[in-house]
Amino acid sequence: MNQQTTTRRLSAGATDFIATANLDVLLKQPQPDTVQVRDILAKSLAKEALTAAETAILIHADDPDSVAAVFAAANRLKREVYGNRIVLFAPLYIGNHCVNNCAYCGFKVTNTKAIRRTLSAEEVEQQVTFLENQGHKRLILVFGEHPDYTPEFIAENVRRIYDIKSGPGEIRRVNINAAPLDGAGYRTVKSSGIGTYQIFQETYHLPTYQEMHPVGTLKGDYLYRLDGLSRAFEADCDDMGVGALFGLYDWRYEVLALVTHSLFLQARYGVGPHTISFPRLCPASGVDLTTPYSVADRDFMRLIAILRLAVPYTGLILTARESAAIRREAMEYGVSQIDAGSRIEIGGYTEVGDMQVMEREQFSLGDIRSLDAVIRELLEDGYVPSFCTACYRLGRTGKQFMEFAIPGFIGSYCTPNAMTTLAEYLADYASPSTRAAGMQRLRAELDAMPDNQRKTEVAERLRRILECGEHDLYV
Ligand code: SAM
Ligand code: SF4
Asked: What is the sign, positive or negative, of the torsion defined by CA atoms of 264, 269, 271, 277?
């Protein structure tokens, strides 16, 4: 149990389940033999979640043959569970006031160079209108931690965003990345119709956590943050995202901790996290942080492949912090959601063009291509870019989602919904070359579907969207 105590209310029986999981011991195991590795890969390919001990074996298996086998298995598992869909979203930073002092972040309270701002209702409308006019349907709202950013304020923004319509454009799913809340706070935010609520632990290694988040700040309370998802589940929020900021501590430890967190939630609440995020530390205004733990590109790919294999049904998110080349490779090994056309300066979608202004953003981005350019590349690489929001709008979240994430579901629901949302994008927003690539992909997807009732339905829906201008035809 860690030394820190909290005066804020925790979930029933809150514990530091990371400390008791003995991750350090798992990380000191000897090199595994090929049979062990093969058996674990077979378990994962049977779509069973791995234990932390099994995940540790994949981490230790760093000889070239084992690494190649891990990449191949991750690629296969990803195709089997997710097909060739990639879900697209955009971040919208609402406010960067923050009372915390996280050593790595440009929004930290001691960064006097940061230009502080919270978007007004009119400014939110301008940003969202811009995003809708690009073709976005899914947003993640990002907030610093500040007394102004109450659950009511977050909920108010979410409701307002759902009401903003620009031509055929609308936002159909709003996710949140903000500070952990108490039970009442989660209920308030949930009542506005949010999708996933993300809370990144940053590092699960307590001494590093304490070094990065000064004692006495709100975020300095390790257990309160670690318990953040448990409180959410107890408040009936079953669509949660976890994450770690890679580069603060040993990536191997953080991977085991993310898996341990997922398994803990699964065991206690019957549902694991909906998504896992694994940002790598980026340069930021007012931040001069060097650690011995920066993650090399090859290790980064390995950790993505290992996470894919450890939690087969959990969405993996990779943001535009990373370069286009890294994102492209990471999608082969497990990433299922990416952002596109992102700007993270407050008001950045309409105010700063392609320039990245360090003082106005949390960190700098590696991929600032337009949504259209990202979609075109995805299409050329054989993916179906998806703006689907059907599951959460039909209540298929949490345990329900797990029941649906079974063989057959993708072919019957996810692929059709990806195709119809892609068709909407092609009809309403795509450049001529993206439209041509998209039409070709839609034809190929349709040809690949078995000849049954679903195929007839999908063909008819595509016709209604592309020829009659209909919208939002999901199953
Ligand atoms: N303020 C809230 C919090 O800390 O949980 C929510 C959002 S914070 C703006 C979003 C995430 O950005 C953090 O959880 C952290 O993982 C990530 N982040 C912060 N500084 C970063 C940096 N320099 N490079 C990459 N990611 C960073
Ligand atoms: Fe504030 Fe979040 Fe940045 Fe920490 S990571 S300084 S809490 S915005």
From this structure: negative
Domain chopping of the chain, boundaries: 10-17+78-369, 403-468
Tokens linked to 196:
């996933």
For ligand 1, atom 25: residue with the closest CA: 281
How far apart are alpha carbons 26 and 59 in whole angstroms? 10
Global pTM reads: 0.95
Where does ligand 1 bind, in terms of residues with CB under 6 Å? 104-105, 142-145, 177-179, 199-200, 202, 245, 279, 281-282, 284, 287, 321, 362-363
Is the Cβ atom of 287 under 6 angstroms away from ligand 2?
Answer: no
Residue with tokens 């997807």: 445
Residue nearest ligand 1's atom 20 by CA: 105
Quick one: DSSP state of residue 32? P
Which has more confidence, 39 or 30? 39
For residue 68, with 0-12 CB atoms within 10 Å meaning exposed, 13-18 middle and 19 or more buried, which class applies?
A: exposed
Return d(Cα 303, Cα 67) in angstroms, integer: 11
Which residue carries 């535009």 as its tokens? Answer: 320
Structure tokens at 367: 């991929």
What is the residue type of 18? I
Which ligand neighbours the alpha carbon of 102 most closely?
A: 2
Residue given tokens 């006031």 in the structure block: 97
Ranges assigned E (strand) in 237-325: 240-244, 275-277, 315-318
pLDDT at 8 (0 to 100): 86
List the CATH code of the domain at 10-17+78-369: 3.20.20.70
SS3 197: strand
For a mutational test of ligand 1's pocket, the pick from 97, 245, 246, i.e. the residue with the most ligand atoms closer than 8 A to its C-beta, is 245
Q: Give the rounded percent of residues in the chain with a pLDDT score beyond 90.
A: 83
Q: What is the mean pLDDT of the chain?
A: 92
Residue type present at position 327: R
